[in-house]
Amino acid sequence: MDSEKQVLFAGFGGQGVLSMGKFLTYAAMGAGKNVSWLPAYGAEMRGGTANCLVTIADDEISSPLTEHPGMAIIMNRPSLDRFEGKIKKNGTLVINSSLVDRLPQREDLNVFQMPVNQIADEMGSPKGANMLLLGACLQKTGVVTVEQALEHFGIIFKGKKESIIEKNREAFLAGVQYAKENW
Amino acid sequence: MKKVLMKGNEAIAEGALTAGCIAFFGYPITPSSEIAEYMARKFPLLGGTFVQAESELAAISMVYGGASTGFRVMTATSGPGISLKSEGISFLAEAELPCLIVNISRGGPGLGGIQPAQSDYWQATRGGGHGDFQIIVLAPSSVQEMLDFAMEAFDLADKYRIPVMVMAEGTLGQMMEPVIPREKVTQFIGKPWAINGCKDRKPNIVNTLHLSPEFLEERNHVLGDKYKVIKANEQRAETYWTEDADLVVVAFGLMSRIVKKAVMEVRKRGHKVGLIRPITLWPFPVEHIKKAAETAKMFLSVEISMGQMVDDVRLAVNGKAPVEFYGRIGMIPSPEEIADQIIKLAEREGF
Question: Which residues in chain A have their CB less than 8 angstroms from residue B257's CB?
Fold first, then answer.
């Protein structure tokens, strides 16, 4: 079970939270892992908060569900309030500090912060915020390596315009760079 | 074939297409709508028929019409839609028309909510509509099985001339997992009863009105005998660690995977716990439960309902051991929560 990683993505609807999860899922599948992507559906889809849980494992995935993910990627304050207490002991917490105005209360967690919206705006790519944070996370944690993720960009964004793919790639790489310099 | 990442709802639709389904009749409802959407996208390209009917009643009646011609046809909905379709399902069962009916289930009663549930178990396994009838009910537990069971459902439907339901929690419809696509089915069994033009033969009639009481009784015996054969031949389940288990947990669908993880954890802590996962909800895998009941000291049914399958577990255990129940409704219990429940029970009983 130690070879099984569960990552929670949470934020406002429209922040690209489900897409971040999907990206990681595709990339991990491309890297030969077993994966599942489980979205919270319902009221979340209709405005308000959104979240999804990605499970990555070397072996068969038993439960795609958990109460206590090992890692949480938090895009806004309500999501931190809701999920901080749920993360596994000594787990990893990644915070978008542009939209989270408090520090986490738990002391056992490995916390990484990044003012995602601010950096995305400075880059002129406000929609790339999710990819920025994802790039930084993968650089830091290696759940899937940055190289593996880059290999699958084309497949993941299949059907999208080349210019959009390029913008996402730029944001992703900026995130990778941020993690190298700051985390 | 290469693995493809798919939503459960897409996988079930893809499975139906692979099995040679040529028509979909439905009315959208969360959390099943992606099935209809997938078919609406695919059928125009494949030359099949997609109809968004004006109501669930119309949709199931179209299934009746489509199935009468001998082609593979289907519908998909959620619990409230199955309630509306139940009249038609009764007609399909008596007319012995093979078809696929999908229930991507949510919590009730009434309009209930849209979160996953298993509280349509009674509705599915007791026929649902009026009269003495059953339908085969398959409960997948992964996105791969959503695809595979759609195909299996059509085979069983044709083999026994019976409507087959695939029932899965809403979560399984919404979640994505990698799926291995299957070879397209091109060989089908003959359907000499189908209404497909009667040049040079006597017309076939598909009808469910039998005003002669003697004939009606005969018809019920025909169905009853068929159900006996299905019960004898088609009970399916997976069992894990039941040989030495003091406590056997029973769970189906996606829930069974969550329970499996809990059982694995609890075994690590030294409690002898096993798992039976019914694959066919009807016919219920009585034989698997019976066998486990020879040695198990207690059973626990875990469901996303107030306790429905637990009835069938009790019938199968037949008094040999106590049968306990744990369930949530409106939300899925986590592996950690179930592990706690199992440990509590094991410690209480001294297992």
Answer: 61-64
